[in-house]
Model the fold of this input.
Amino acid sequence: MAKERVAAAIDVGTTKICTLVGTSDRDGETQVIGVGITPSRGIRKGIVVNIDETVESVQASVEKAERSSGYRVVSAYVGIAGGHVSSTNNRGVVAVSRGDHIITSEDVTRAIESARAMNLPSNREVIHIVPRYYTVDGQDGVRNPIGMHGFRLDVETHIVTGAVTSIQNLTKCIQRAGVEVEDLVLSSLASSEAVVSEEEKDMGVVLADIGGGTTDIAVFLDGSIWHTAILPVGGYHVTNDIAIGLRTPFAVAEDLKIRHGHAAPSSLAPDETIDITTFGSDSFKPTARRNLADIIEARVAEIVSMIMGEVKSAGFNGFLAAGMVLSGGTASLPGVDWLASEITGLPVRIAKPKSIHGLVDAIANPAYATSVGLLSWGLRHTEVEVPGVPRLRGVGEMAKRFSVWMKELLPQ
Done:
């Protein structure tokens, strides 16, 4: 009988904190058994600005997930985002160590460690080293070199770094909430686990997760990650534009966006109206729904243009045969896919988390792509537990952070 993996994931977003507890057997089926969703406080644009408020929000989310799952969350995989995160590509080169020149996992580890040997300011820390592909004696495009014969092994890696201060503040908040950080995972990489197919990654695709305070971007080509970036705009800015444009409180603007929002004004009837509450008035005022849609269209168009600007500046424009995949709460707005396709000229689809079972009613929409992706990442990197036998930690910093941990979820 296939043994079960158990993992927990915490998505610390600008607007919400989502904790998921899930299981997976050797067949790869993911079962969500615990969900905890709470409003986020103390986070701005993906960065901790108030530790006490963030700790309270995380604790509330974790407690909800524990009650619904029946497990105590001891450690979790945690998503990280924010403008402090940056990325670069770097190559590592080593000579094959064995006398018979058969490449082993030790050679791969040394090659990745070699790629990590780059000049990094003291205020920055490596979050991920993701191998893109390997080259064996000049033969490139190798996905798994272990067992191959060769004299020289090269690895092309994608390296993600973040500000030490921001990383430590986020880690401190999770730990003060009573949870150890099993591994930090870049939000865009996590989202790709849940919503991007292997075929799309092979053909070339840009994933854009438009969250509350940031838009996380990841470009995939030839089956590997090539570029990541985080833009400091998101759904909060759409709501703020609505509040200013219609002169209504922020909470009312958020409700209008969710209930009546649309990113394609031309598809709405000119005489369709909605009732809104403005500042200085307790009564409802009828307003054309197209006015709301005009505001949303302008901001979403700007976000899409910024996404494509990042793709072009990175040199990947023209390589996206599979187009654009949109996730995040703002992607749920009607008309966003049409508008994005009009602006980019690419095929665009709105992505919901896939291949999950169990308590999925609350998370089966684009806003939870990162949360589900974090859980999938955690389950994929969690070894099957054997009582009394320690296992390796997740591989967010593969060569740097190999360490031994015990089971992260203990039944109550």
The longest helix spans residues 289-313.
